[in-house]
Amino acid sequence: MSSGIPAPTAATSAAPGAPSEADLLDFVRRTAADAQLVGSLPLDPQGRTWIRLEGPSGSEAWLISWPPGSGTGWHDHGGSRGAFAAAAGRLTEQSLAARLPTEGWTLLELADGIDRERQLTDGGGRAFGPHHVHQVFNASSERHAVSVHAYYPPLPLMRRYSRSGRVLRLQQVEWPQEWA
Questions:
Q1: CATH assignment at residue 43
Q2: Number of domains in the chain
Q3: pLDDT score of 107
Q4: Complete edge-to-edge strand list for the sheet that includes strand 107-109
Q5: If pLDDT is split at 50, 70 and 90, which confidence band does 85 have?
Q6: What is the pTM of this model?
Q7: Is 160 within the bounds of a domain?
């Protein structure tokens, strides 16, 4: 049974000279420490704002603000590996410690014990592989958070999911032209 959603091919084969997860993590941590860059990001009380950055070795990178209470919802990165770091404030990441299939399904029942949660504060970061499913949010009711993200290869798509208990459901696929 096919979902009709294409599986990215470029993300699964590493090109010579491609940045590793460690390279991406180093980049986002160094960039998060750049107070002048972080301070240049306009903060909107109603929605996230972002600036696209030039990442290492052809990667895609973003500086993103998170108003109080905002978040991404559950998603993946279309097969790209990546890293992100908090530049200001505190972000919560909830993730699944399981490798999910990238196509052929619209509904999965998750096993017990695969949920992970971590807090990222000033300079704290993490790297992840091409099959990472997570959500990131700013749980503060008063303070903006800012983070830096990098992906390689540049995001071919993002899959959005809804979750109810142990059930994860594919909701939509977003394409890069939608993020302009």
A1: 2.60.120.10
A2: 1
A3: 94
A4: 107-109, 167-174, 158-164, 74-75, 134-137, 90-96, 115-121
A5: very high
A6: 0.88
A7: yes
